[in-house]
TrEMBL record:
All residue ranges annotated as the P-type ATPase A domain in the record: 126-224
Record organism: Rhodococcus navarretei
InterPro entries found in the cross-reference section: ATPase_P-typ_cyto_dom_N (IPR023299), ATPase_P-typ_P_site (IPR018303), ATPase_P-typ_TM_dom_sf (IPR023298), ATPase_P-typ_transduc_dom_A_sf (IPR008250), ATPase_P-type_domA (IPR059000), Cation_Transport_ATPase_IB (IPR051014), HAD-like_sf (IPR036412), HAD_sf (IPR023214)
Protein name: Heavy metal translocating P-type ATPase
Topological category with respect to the lipid bilayer: Multi-pass membrane protein
CDD domains for the chain: Hr-like (cd12108)
SUPFAM superfamilies registered for this protein in UniProt: Calcium ATPase, transduction domain A, Calcium ATPase, transmembrane domain M, HAD-like
Secretion signal, residue range per the UniProt entry: none
Biased composition range(s): Basic and acidic residues: 776-785
Keywords annotated in UniProt: ATP-binding, Cell membrane, Membrane, Metal-binding, Nucleotide-binding, Transmembrane, Transmembrane helix
Region feature Disordered, mapped onto this chain: 771-798
Alphabetical list of Pfam families matching this protein: E1-E2_ATPase, Hemerythrin, Hydrolase
Record's keyword annotation contains Metal-binding: yes
Cross-referenced PANTHER family: CADMIUM/ZINC-TRANSPORTING ATPASE HMA2-RELATED, CADMIUM_ZINC-TRANSPORTING ATPASE HMA4-RELATED
């Protein structure tokens, strides 16, 4: 029954005043009713008059407060109706209006508290102290005293106070406050941990990499405060409508008085005229949608962003960190002749062990993921833009960029060509000044990118554009894979802003980015969305929406929530306003007396408020629900994919040996391929057919959802059998014969492409259903053979 715009009084005062007003008005109404039943009419009127006066005093203050801020709200109608009931001696109607006014106020407060519960929970979890360890002494200090590099101890159940790197062997974390994911995650030594997450396991230590003010949680808390304080355009629209609705109500009320010569009719019109559905229910639906989005890791800074998100048609994205993971991963390892690829990786990772560079971290992560034991480097010398030089196990190792020149060996020239095709970065490795190999690093697509873009298009997006500072070749490759409508590469920050403005001229535009260079473009878009989990502070501050989970699919979820909330807001406003207008007509013709009108308006208010609160619930488009055992199975097969992906290069390298005429070595390499296929790949495929796919039939609706994958398994088995036959023929001859070459090459390259595609399809369609924010950690099972992951490149390998 009131505007959602809060009066300029302390929140604590309002929190106490609203229930007190409700108790007073309800008490006055009930006491008056009891007195009336006892035939004490004068006492009854006294109670009802008191209830009316108790209501009219705060309502008058709300009107004055609104006028002082330049607003003419519909609270004025409430004051006039209350005063009118006293004037025409309709005291019971005045008491009912007072109860209606207090009830609407209390419902308003309760709805806001419920709708913003998830946002305020961020504030409740703010840590104020931290336990800092110095030598063997642990001291509790104010969080503002924590500095970069301090050793912090986090006990069981405690909130991580600052961003840092884990120094303990393992930490079990509950990241649901930031990500919306209820599942616990494990982090190991050297991995990032963000402030605000909860320690769900035993105590662990971290090394602070930021102060409390610069940590993740501080930024999220600030966004939460802003989100809770903002009001939606629907609210401002309500105020504009009030500007014409108020004169309309006064005209209808006056005409009914003049025509009928009855002040009672005029008062009845005022009683049913307050448009609570517009001023109360619609904002509640918007705030409820914001709360619902926060639960899944989407922090919306104001209601206007939610409304705009609900009818956007164009999406502009950055590439790195948005469509791709933003984390380089080790691709192929190419070693010079006579160099062991596994040892090459171990030495390179050992040399990079102390480097903070993102490429160095990727190399170390690749080596530790393969279970390699790293050595501690000494005499470390790191030059910006060049790389790292370290002494490892008595040998001088360099890792980084290098101008190999036109006289480079054939294998090195092949690396350069392949990197150009794949959009990879090359980390050259030298051992005691001799070029020993190269590690190709790529930034892979997010597994959920294709699925998310399909969902976004189904949610109403008609155009998807990528703006990236990357080169044309990798940018075009990403655009082709994802089916983007336009791709613009080598874009500067100014170019991105211009591109976003161009798109915004023709449609409501969403911009998604994560880097500092994306911040101006985010600010220029209709709705700026920052990948806040790993993005820069600048991009998060410039954005209207922050994805606190490092998952692009959360944007699709948020669009569905936005559309549903907006639909509920408009529905609540339209239906409620329509009912109020109909009631005004009945009142104007004398068919609805003030007391009955007050009861009717109360019912309308409650109905539209309850309808608006539906925005808190999940809509009809539900996420696929998995049992815990099925989710565990998905993660198990996902981990096996990571292990097998390391061996896929065997297929390509065996084909290269055949192409260059090294048929004796090709036979040995073909045996490694057969061992990989027989002992690892085919058992994995059979287990998927017999265990995983039947378990997915229920959640996905039918077994048809996995039928094409089963058919691909059959083709993989057929080609694997053909390669086994070739190996048997080569063993009989003692070498691979030339008449086998063509078919062998077709089988090897075909199976390589088939497995790459098959892995990607399964990961996108199935494994993302149970994906964590972090990639599944690769663990080398005890029973996995110790076969080499790479084959040393020959001098003339292309």
């Amino acid at each position: 029954m009131t505007s959602t715009q809060q009066p300029s009084v302390p929140k604590r005062l309002r929190a106490a005043a609203d229930p007190a007003l409700l108790v007073a008005t309800v008490g006055a109404l009930l006491c008056g009713g009891l007195a009336w039943l006892l035939d004490a009419k004068a006492v009854a009127d006294g109670f009802w008059i008191a209830g009316t006066v108790v209501s009219i005093l705060p309502a008058t203050w709300w009107v004055i407060d609104a006028l002082r801020r330049g607003r003419v709200g519909v609270d004025l109608i409430a004051v006039l109706s209350l005063a009118g009931t006293l004037l025409v001696h309709e005291y019971v109607a005045g008491a009912l209006i007072g109860v209606m006014l207090a009830t609407g106020r209390a419902l308003d407060s309760a709805a806001e508290r419920r709708a913003t519960k998830d946002l305020h929970s961020l504030l409740d979890n703010v840590p104020h102290t931290a336990r800092r360890r110095i030598a063997n002494d642990v001291q509790t200090v104010p969080i503002d005293e924590v500095g970069v590099g301090d050793a912090i101890v986090v006990g069981p159940g405690e909130v991580v106070p600052v961003d840092g790197w884990i120094t303990s062997p393992i930490a079990v974390l509950d990241e649901s406050v930031l990500t919306g994911e209820a599942m616990q995650v494990r982090r190991r030594t050297g991995q990032d941990v963000r402030s605000g997450v909860v320690n769900a396991g035993s105590a662990f230590e971290l090394s602070a990499r930021a102060t409390a003010a610069d940590s993740t949680y501080a930024g999220v808390v600030q966004l939460a405060r802003e989100a809770a304080a903002e009001s939606a355009p629907v609210v401002r629209l309500a105020d504009r409508i009030a500007a014409w609705f108020l004169p309309f109500v006064l005209i209808v009320s006056t005409l009914s008085w003049l025509i009928s010569d009855s002040v009672v009719r005029a008062v009845a019109v005022l009683v049913v005229a307050t448009p609570c559905p517009l001023l109360l229910a619609a904002p509640i639906a918007i705030v409820s949608g914001m709360s619902r989005a926060s639960r899944i890791g989407v922090l919306i800074r104001h209601g206007g962003a939610l409304e705009n998100l609900g009818h956007a048609t164009t999406l502009v994205l950055d590439k790195t960190g948005t469509l791709t993971t933003g984390r380089p991963t080790g691709g192929d390892i190419v070693a010079a002749p006579g160099t062991d690829p596994t040892e090459l990786l171990r030495l390179a990772a050992s040399a990079d062990r102390l480097s903070p560079h993102v490429l160095a971290e990727a190399i170390v992560r690749e080596a530790t993921g393969r279970g390699l034991a790293l050595s501690m480097p000494t005499d470390v010398d790191e030059a910006a833009g060049t790389g790292v030089a370290s002494t490892v196990d008595g040998r001088r190792i360099t890792v980084g960029s290098l101008d190999v020149g036109p006289d480079a060996p054939a294998w090195a020239r092949a690396v350069l060509a392949r990197a150009a095709f794949d959009g990879a970065v090359i980390a050259w490795v030298t051992i005691d000044s001799a070029l020993a190999g190269a590690i190709l690093l790529v930034d892979p697509l997010r597994r959920d990118a294709s699925r998310t873009l399909r969902r976004l298009r189904s949610a109403g997006l008609t155009r998807v554009v990528m703006l990236t500072g990357d080169r044309h070749e990798p940018a075009e490759a990403v655009g082709a894979i994802l089916g983007l409508d336009a791709v613009y590469a080598e874009q500067t920050p100014a170019d991105k802003v211009a591109g976003v403005r161009t798109e915004r001229e023709s449609a409501v535009t969403i911009m998604v980015g994560d880097g500092v260079n994306d911040a101006p473009a985010l600010a220029a878009a209709t709705v700026g969305v920052a990948m806040g989990a790993r993005g820069s502070t600048a991009s998060s501050e410039a954005a209207d929406i922050v994805l606190t989970a490092d998952r692009l699919d959360r944007l699709a979820d948020a669009m569905e929530i936005a559309r549903r909330s907006r639909r509920i807001a408009v529905q609540s406003a339209a239906v409620g306003m329509g009912l109020s207008l109909v009631a005004m007509g009945f009142a104007a013709f004398g068919l609805l007396p003030p007391a009955a009108g007050a009861l009717l308006q109360e019912g309308i208010d409650v109905a539209v408020i309850l309808n608006a609160l539906r925005a808190l619930r999940v809509g009809s488009a539900q996420r696929v629900t998995l049992t815990e055992s099925t989710a565990d199975m998905l993660r198990r097969f996902d981990g096996e994919h990571d292990l097998m992906r390391e061996d896929l290069s065997l297929l390509r390298q065996t084909a290269q040996l055949i192409t260059t005429g090294h048929l004796d070595q090709a036979r040995a390499s073909l045996r490694l391929v057969d061992t990989f296929l027989t002992d690892t790949l085919l058992p994995h495929e059979r287990a998927e057919d017999t265990e995983l796919y039947p378990a997915l039939a229920g959640p996905l609706g039918s077994s048809e959802a996995t039928a094409t994958m089963s058919r691909m398994h059959a083709e993989i088995g057929r080609v694997s059998g053909r390669l086994r036959t070739h190996l048997e023929q080569a063993d009989a001859r003692g070498h691979v014969s030339e008449d086998q070459s063509d078919d062998l090459l077709a089988c090897l390259y075909g199976l390589y492409a088939l497995l790459r595609l098959h892995f990607l399809q399964e990961e996108e369609n199935y494994f993302t259903l149970a994906s964590d924010d972090e990639p599944t950690e690769r663990k080398q099972p005890d029973d996995v053979r110790n076969s080499p992951n790479c084959v040393a490149a020959e001098e003339n390998t292309p």
